[in-house]
Write a structure and sequence with these properties.
nine-stranded mixed beta sheet; 16 helices; alpha/beta; globular; binds pyridoxal-5'-phosphate; 471 residues; Aspartate Aminotransferase, domain 1; Arc Repressor Mutant, subunit A
Amino acid sequence: MLYQQIVDFITERIDKGTILPGEKLPSLRKMADQFDVSLSTAVEAYRKLELFGYVEAKDRSAYRARLPISNNIILKPSKKFQSKVAQIENIDHILELFNQSQDTETAPFGVGTPALEKFPFKLLNRYLIQTLKYQPLSAVGYLFGNGLEELRVLLSKWIRPWAGVSHPSNIIITNGCLEAVNISLATECEAGDIVAIESPCYFGLLHAIHHHQLKAIEIKTDPQSGIIPESLEELSKKHKIKILITSANGQNPLGFTMSDERKKEILKICKKNNIHIIEDDLYGEICYQKKRPKTYKYFDKDNIVTYCSSFSKFLGPGLRIGWCIPSHKAQDYLRHKLSLNLSSTSISQYVASNLLKNEDVLSLGESLSDYYQKNTQIYSNVLENYLGDKVSLSRPSGSYFLWVRIEGLDSVKVFEKAKKMKLSFTPGPFFSATGQFESYLRINCAHEFTEKRHEQLVKLCKLFLAELAKS
Ligand SMILES: Cc1ncc(COP(=O)(O)O)c(C=O)c1O
C-alpha cells in the first residue's frame, strides 16, 4: 500500500519524539512530493494516522501530532493486591469466553487468538502439501511418546541460544504449550499442593491448576519488570510452595519481559526454597527486542526448570506443536504424555521438522513482533484518546495484549453488557485465583486496526464511560 510509507515515516518520528506532541505535521502536498505519491495517497495516509490516534486534524489543512501516551497513565502494581492460598472455584466463564470467540460478528478483543491472516500461512500450506507429497505416510502413523526424532534433534539445536543445551531424547513433543504445562503439573504435583503464579496470570493456567485440584497463590508482579522477588521470598517462607509457573518473556496479560538478572534472582529463591519452576515461554519469539530473550531454563544450573513452549504464537496454533523439556523425572513425564493421547499429531511434526530444516523460523517471529508492537501502540493511543485520565495502561515489551485499568469500573458487569452489543474484552478477575482486578481488563490488540475495529473500540470506550457515569 502506497500510503504505508508515509504512515511509517510519521509514526516512527512520533514514537521516537522527533516530532513532538502538538507539533504541526508537514503539509499533504509536501508529503506527496517527498514520497512521490499522489495527493489523495497522502490524504489517505493522514486519515489512517488519525484513525490510529497519532494525529488530530483541527481542520483538513492542518494536522498536528497527538501525545502518543503519557507517562502518568502507565500502570503501576495494584495497591489493593492481596495474596492468599486459594482453591480456584469457578472456571465456567472460561468456556463462555471461548464460545464467544467463535462468533465472527463479535469484536475480537476478548480471547487471545492471534490474527490468523498475519501468520505465514502460505508457507505453512506449501510445507503441508510438500510433506504429504514426499512423505506420504506422515499423516497416518503414531509417533509414540516423545515424538518425531528428527524434529527433536532440530528443536534442541534451534532453541539452544535462548534455552541452553537439551538432549533430544529429553524433549517431549506435545499438542501445544498448554498440554506441556498440564503434563508438568500432573508429574510434579499431588492434589492440594500449592502453585505460585504471577498476578495477573493467564486464565488457561488457572484452568490447569483447577483441573489438577491444586491450590494457587498469587505473587506480586510489576507490570513492567515482572515477578517481585521479595514477594516470592516472603510467601515461600509462609507457605510450602511446590511449583512456580512463570512466563518471563512477553507475559500474558502484562506483556513484560523480565531482565536476565531478575530471572537469575527468581531461580535462586526457588532453589533455596525447594520450588520447582514450570516455565511457559510461549511468547518469547514475539518479544519486541531485537534479540530473542533468554529463558530461566538457559540459566538453570540446578535442574529445577521444566521448559514448555510451542509454535502457536508465531507459526500458527492450528499446528498444535509444542514441547516439554523436563529437568528430571523424564520417564514420569513421558508416562503422563502417553496416558493422555499416546502421540502428538504426526503430520504436524513432519511439517514442523521440514520447516526447521529449511527456513529461518525465528525471522518469521520477528516480523510478527514488529507488527504486534505497532498495533499495541495504536490500540493504546485510541484508548487514551477516548478515556483520558480515567485509564491506565500496561506498556508491553512483547505479545499483543494490553492490560487496562479503569478506576471504578466493574469489568465483569460491563462484560455482560458488552456481549449483548457484540463487543468483547476479558475481565480482570478472570486472571486471578481470588477474583482480584475488578476494575481491570485485557484487550487483545492482535487484529488489524481497520475502520471497523476503530468503530468497535470507540463503542467499547463509550460503554465504559457510560458505566462510570452511572456509578
Ligand atoms: C501463557 C499461555 N500459555 C499457553 C497458551 C496455550 O498455548 P498452546 O496453544 O500452544 O497450547 C496460551 C494461549 O494463549 C498462553 O497465553
